Amino acid sequence: MINLFRTAFLVIIILLANCTVANAETDKSPEENRVDLIGKVLDKYYLDFAPLGKVELPRIIYDEEGLHFFRSTTHAINSQRGFTDAAFLDSGQIPTGHVKPVSYELARTNGTEIKMDLSITNHLFFFWLAAFVTMGIFIPLSGKYRQGIGRTSEPKGGFQNLFETFVIFIRDDIAKSNIGEKYEKFTPYLLTVFFFILFMNLFGLMPWGVSSTADITVTAVLALFTFFFTQAYASKDHWQHIFWFPGVPTPIKFILLPVELIGLFTKPFSLCIRLFANMASGKILIFALLGLIFIFDGLFGAVVAYGTSWLWIALTLFVYLIKAFIAFIQAYVFTILSALFIGMAVEEHHHEEHAH
Amino acid sequence: MRFVFAQSLLDVDFGLFFWVLITFILFLIILGKFAWKPILSALSEREKNIKESLEAAEKAMEEARKVSAENEAALKEAEITAQKIRKEALEDAEKIRADRMQKADKDANERLEQALQQIEQEKKKALIELRTEVSDLAIKAVSQILDAEIDEKKNKQLVDNYIKDLSSN
Prior knowledge:
The structure holds two protein chains of two kinds.
Chain A: H1 2-26, H2 30-33, H3 37-41, E1 46-49, E2 53-56, E3 59-63, E4 66-70, H4 73-77, E5 83-85, H5 86-91, E6 106-108, E7 114-117, H6 122-147, H7 157-179, H8 183-203, H9 216-232, H10 236-243, H11 250-300, H12 302-346
Antiparallel strand pairs in A: 1-2, 3-4, 3-7, 5-6
Helix pairs in contact in A: 1-11, 6-8, 7-8, 7-12, 8-12, 9-11, 9-12, 11-12
Chain B: H1 2-10, H2 14-146, H3 152-168
């Protein structure tokens, strides 16, 4: 499975790898100057406010001795409770005294395995932030409806009007038009998913913000929920179409069975990859474009780098705008495809249609 | 070496997976209960209200149209009735007039008839009276004439015979 993921990204990775290599080869001290582009997108155990500093997040570790809670990674390493940075163990020398984490990967000094790392991460933090923003918007908004504004009268104010438009759009144009009669059951899920993804995407555009949707784990969970809703409410026809396709000769039924079974899983899989790839690649693209300035500096010298920098900055701005657009598009695409998959599964077919 | 970075990008982190899964369920429930349910119910209620009031307005309009049509029809009918009543009244009056005239004619004729009959009767009565008068006169005259010639006995017999003849006539 992981291999499949990898091939999807191979082109970008090779490109970036080459860039970094080119940079590294021409530079006098390659290791110091190397910028880890992929690392920018990776999940971290701290909030990066570079160049101001880092805010470390709590660590929760489960191992043979039970659960361990630490305020931060630094705290964990210096707590004298048998934890150290994995990088120290790799290098073979464990420093003494107050140390700062290097790789932020915790390891036991006695060599026993860490069973689960339930630490709060960067992406999780922004996932929660998106959740709280969603709640912070819609729970007060629902209060207005409870009071009767928008229930018996027209909605009042820009706040209510703006978000009501989104809600109605999702309910009518996404849920109702794709799911059909049973749309009411799924509208809350689609609304939640849409606003979560939207806010997560938008956080990626903010200074020091990261988009949690650029993490395949987050998109995988979201896709899993769509998969769950699709299968949990699937009609009898849905299962019949997978296991014993109606209206075709028996040998074809046997051919269709694996195809349909694979199709069952490729749908959420595509949802997961699409969102992740779009968000991650946008971010990598921005870093890569800005990185071109430094690559040109290495290749042709500082004059060329300064001379062409306006081009890369303009391109970066363009990509940034595209990303802002994509933030909405991808939230919409994920939601509408979820609705479509749910709609396909819950739909009751008429067998006359498949008689031929 | 660099593919290791790429791989870490595509690794599913268990801790994150766990937290996202748990908290997403939680937020889904909280949002569903405290945000989407009141919002969606309010929206559907509002739409229902709007739809109902539109329908009610449509219905009221239809009703009003119907009522006005009915009124018009009633007015027309009333006019027709009035015209009919007028016509009937005229006919009645004409009839009454004709009747009266006929009755008056009849009355007049009857009275005439009666008068004529009375006259006839009076005439008959007068004739009878006249006869007796005439016979008396004749007797007197004849007795005066014959006083000297014929005796009383014979005369009486003769006159009686004559009167007998007369009354038998």
